[in-house]
Structure formats: structure tokens, C-alpha cells
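Regression test attached.
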Amino acid sequence: MSPAEENAVRTSARNGWLLSAPALVLLALAAAGPLLIVAVYSFLSPGQYGNVVWDFSLEGWRSILYTKDIFSEEYLLADAHLTIFWRSVWLALTTTVITFLVGFPTAWFIATRPAASRPIWLFLITIPFWTNLLIRTFAINEIIRTEGLLNQLLLGLGLIGEPLQILYTDTAVLIGMTYVYLPLMVLPLFAAIDRFDMRLLEAGYDLYAGRWQVLRRVILPIVRPGIVAGSILVFVPALGAYVTPRVLGGGKNMMIGNFIELQFGQGRNWPLGAALSMTLLLIVTTALLFYVRSMNRDGGEGGNG
Amino acid sequence: MAERRFVTSRLPGFATVAILAFVALYLPIFTLVSFSFNGGRAVNQWEGFSLHWYGVAWANTAVQDATIRSLFIAVMAALISTLVATMAAVGTTRRRRFTGQTFIYAMINQPLMVPEIVTAVALLIFFAAIKVATGYQGLGYLILAHSAFCVPFAYLPIRARLEGMDLSLETAAADLYATPWHTFRRITLPLMAPGIIAGAMLAFVISLDDVVITEFVKSGGQDTLPTYMLGQLRRGVTPEVNAISTMLLGLTVVMLTAFFLLTRNRD
């Protein structure tokens, strides 16, 4: 490289940084930076009326799993906390599985429509995707409550004798999350299926594979990146869900998100809240790293798994 | 049964599941929208078409305040995030890869990866300290928070537009002795305008819809429409909340349709 070229490259890089600087400052100030403060707060002691006292303590992290017995000062496993963790992970995983089971046929259906009508079907999936999560949660709330449409329908059909109490149960949260996160599964699946070469199906059938074999041995391995992407897109927000469990789960059926909020409200234990937030962030980061690794592997193999 | 032609891309039961999924997606929304036009107080019994609940919502000063606040924050957040996102997009596309570019991408996309509740808690802590130190309690915190999480939504369409753009017009302008600023102002900026508008609209919709971060950052009396609606939940979902939801929904659908028309015309 000539000195002039070298200079041009350096100027270009400098301009790139300068132009990105305002965005970086904004994000450092109101998104990434405050996360560091959360990390610091998780190692402090709770103040009497909320906030923190600047004394180093591991109590915040310890109380994620253990509670101190008031009398014997012994540390006991905190069953209530474990229940919340278990419920969150279980609900997030089940939501991911159900959205996949419903989302895959839906994405396949959209991708196999004639070119003229495909954008309309796609648009129909995109509208709920961008619609306010709170509004969609209210909408599903209307359907599943005791006097709601679902119960009226089931009563009318004579399938049940009296209305089901679905609202304020784990089932309600599960139904709600499946409903609100379904588009997040369908869109990446559609993107993967859309790139799928349908001639491979003919090849499969020519070689005497049945439908099930074609699905399992040809389609699913090739659209795997879409499956992984959709699962991450559903699992990550589902695990940190706050609005849906608050509206549909009531006060009792908390998930991690609501439990974190509790520590900053009535719980007045900011260090525990901070430690819980860091734990959630760690789980999500692990899931994302898994996703990146999986993508790299798929890229390397060229999708002939 | 009539013999059906063997279509290789057809998988048994898939179409049925898909149609049911579409019905399940839209039925609750339609129910909510239609009951906002219900004459009576009941949310499950149809008592004739009426705009009564829109009148009730409109006359409620708390709803008026929340609407104005929501729109003001969304406009400010859209303007700020689009401005910084446009600059960042120009800075990170169509030039030689430079050291730290991955870091810039990671920073810009960070709000998409961190759970909202974690960001909300982080901002609560950070802003609480600033509120104590400065005594300032205004809407600035909400605008700052919204601007930040809107950046990736504004950035992505602008970057997509820039990457799809042809360099030849700009080269031609430079050949004709246009200054870099002139070239940018008269050639690049008009060409990227649809991306910028699309990005601003997405940022606006995202800001307008936010619940979690607003709920944690707002001071007393700073309810936006979504946090107002969440607060009303203690009284159950009322037809008034249905009416507000329907209006928000309408606004989102209008913005999205415009967004699709804008991004489709790129050819």
C-alpha cells in the first residue's frame, strides 16, 4: 500500500468512528453503561428503604439460592426462588416447543403459497409481530377469562359443565406467551424455508422416501438455522417476560422478570434484584453464544447435516 | 374421494394448522376491537354499535395527558435515534472494514439482545442516582431511554438501504468536482431517504409500544398510554381500555402499511 492509500484508509476508519460516536455515546449512557452499575450493585448491601448501602457483600448473589434462617442463622435452600426459576425456564421452553410445532407448518404454508399471494400472508404475520405486546396480552386475556369466548364456546358445545378457570394459572401464561411470541418463530422459519430448494423434495420422493422421511431427513436438517434462530428469538424474551405473566398470571404465578421487579418494589432488596438481573443476562448470553456457534457450524458444513 | 395430484411441497395437515394459527392470531384482536364499539358496559355481550367508549376515553384527562406524553416521547425518540442511527449507518457501510466495527455493531444491536427487564432495572438504578444528584425529574429520562432502545430499529432499515445503493451516482458527482458534503447532501441523502423514513417510523412505533422500560423509568405522573393501560388492569379490562387499544392498534397498522409501501418501492 502506498502512503497515500494508507492515509485514505486511516481517514476512512476515523470518519467511521466519528460518525458512529453519537450513537455509541447514547447507547453507553442509556443502555449498555447502566448494566455495569447493575453488576456493581449486586455486590452491595440493601438499604433499609430500598436503594443500597455501599458495603461490599455477597448476600445478593447468595440469596438467589439460599435464605438465612432468622433464628439459627443457617443458610437454607430457598424453595420459593427455585420454584420461580423452574417455572420461568419450564414456561419459556414449553412456549418455544409449542410455537415451533404451530409455527413450522404455518411458515411452510406461507412459503409454499403462489408468489402473488405470499406477501399478503407474510404481512398478516408481520402485523401481530409489530402490534403492542400489551394489547395482544389484553386480547388473549379477553378470550380465556371465565366469561370469555373460549369458555362460552366450550360451554355451548357441551364439552364442559362449568367455566374453566384458566386466568391466573401457569396455563394462562403459557397460552399468552405462545400467542404473543408465535410471529417471532414464524418469521425466521419462513426465511429459511423460502430459501429451501423444493426440487430436493422431488429427489427425495423419486428415491422412494415417504412424506415423513422427507420431512425428517431432508427438510428439517436444511432449515435448521431457521429453527435455531426462531427458538432463540422466542426463548430469550419468554424467559425474561414481564408483561404477560403480570397480566395473565396474576400476583402468584411470577416469572423471573416479575420477581426482579418485586425486589425493587415491596421487596426492597436491590442487591438481590441486581444479582437476579445479572443471572438472567448470563442465561440469555449463553443462549446467544450457543446460537452464534451453531450458526458458524451450519455455515461451515454448507447445510448437508 | 377424488384422486388428488401429488404436489411435492404439500405436507399433510400443515395447511390446516396454518389456517388455525392465523385464526388464533386474529380472533382475539378482532374480539377486542369489536367490543370497543359495544354500546353496553359488558365486555362479552353485544349490545349494539356505539362510539360511547371512545367518547369516555377521549373525555378522560388522564388518557389525554398520557396520549400527548406518549406521542411527544415517541416523536423525540424517533428523531434522536434516527439522527444518530443515520450517522452510524453512513459510518459503518460502504467503506473498508475498520478495527472496532464489530464492536460498533454489537453496541448498536445490544438493546435487541439484553432482556428488557434487565435494561429497565439498570436504568431505574442509574436514573435514580441522577435524580437525587440533580433534582431533575422531567421527561428527559424517558426520552433518553426510548432514544437508546430505538437506535437498532432505526439503524437496520437505513443500513439495508445504504448497502443496496449504487455508488455510481456519487462517483459521477465527485468526478464533476462536487465537494464531499455537496455529494452527500444532494445525492446520498435523497437516495437514502426512504430508509431513513422507514427507520424513523419503526422507531416511533417501538417507542409508542414500550411498557417495561417506561414503567421502571417514569417518575410519578408520567404515565404513557401503555403504562396507563397496565395500571387500569386492576379494574379488569374495561371497554374504555379496549377503545384505547383499538386506537393504538389502528395507528400501528397505518404506520406499518406505510413502512411496507416505502421499503417495497426500492427495486
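Expected vs. actual: identical. Chain A is about 70% helix and 5% strand.
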